[in-house]
Amino acid sequence: MYLRVLSVTTFVSLVILCALVSTTHGTNNEKKCHGCDFHCDFIIKDCVEEVKCSCSFCENDLQCSHQCSWYVNCTSKDLNKMPRLQVDTKNLYLGSNAITTLDAYGFSNLSIISLDLINNELTESRIDDTAFSGLDELSYLRISYNTLKKVNKRWFEELRSLTIVVLRHCDITSVDGDLFDNNLNLKWVNLGDNNIRFLPSGLFKKHTKLNLVALFNNEITYIPPGFFKASSASIEVLYIHDNLLANIGPSAGLQDFPNLNKLSVFSNPFTCNCDLVWFINWIKLNEGILAPKGRKDIIPRCNDLGLDNKIITKVDIGALHCNWIWWELAVGGTLFILLVCLYLKIPQIRRCISSYRRRKQYIQLLERTTKKEENEAIDKDST
Hints:
Largest sheet: 10 strands, mixed
Helix content: 25-40%
Shape: elongated
Order of helices and strands: HHEEEEEEEEEEHHH
């Protein structure tokens, strides 16, 4: 009888305990991040009173195209440092705050696929070399509107899944040629609205998946030969407007872009002379790819005095009087052939020169011998 009462008591206690646990769980859910599902395990102190971030399940978000993932939106929350985050955070938006520092391995315990740090107070010196270490799954990174000046290549060394990187309005003046050497999955690179003057020839030497490259509104004066060689087959969009390009030669390789469907080159000081004939002809044949489409007021124009404000697609090639180019090619070709022949005949030329020198030496020796004999004969007669 005692055992039976004990069993009933135990059973009732377990029921009451489960009910309490259930009630407590529901209360905790109510305290968690505003609008969050239970996967966001932020407590009320972190989420509502201090950080006030919102967490939810993204289904149609641009950066969640791979998979639906939980994201944390901390945009414009007056943060001056990184908030505490759950391990299952996949998409993190920290834009428009006052974050000044990214510490070493600050994201190493997370599996973030999308990270937005736009419009903070970050500088190159306050971002540790290993700040992004451990983010093996990071696909999207935006650090625009920060005063970086220089981009540290070590930030990107471990981001092997990176497909989109946006570094607009960062006051960048130069980039290293090996900046993205470990990011072979890059599809979008946006370096627009900076102060870049020089493009290293090897910046995209390994990137065969690039789809969009934005270099607009910089101070670029020259595109190195073969700059887009590795990615020429994959690039569809190229923005190089608002720079200081006076010429784009065939060595840039635009003619090798089979899938290019959008090209913006307006607001460059093009000099429409004989050096630009190739580009003018190419643009005329591919006028449909010029962007923005339908904007006749934003199209490439000549900037030299002879053709001031002349639309590039309406330039009369004949008016440039470039017939002299053929003479230059003919003379250049002739000189090249002569140099080749000279190079091939060098051994014979050397033998001829050597033979001439020996003959000259022989003649000089003979003359000295003859003169000596004559002097001896004169001395003999005088005695």
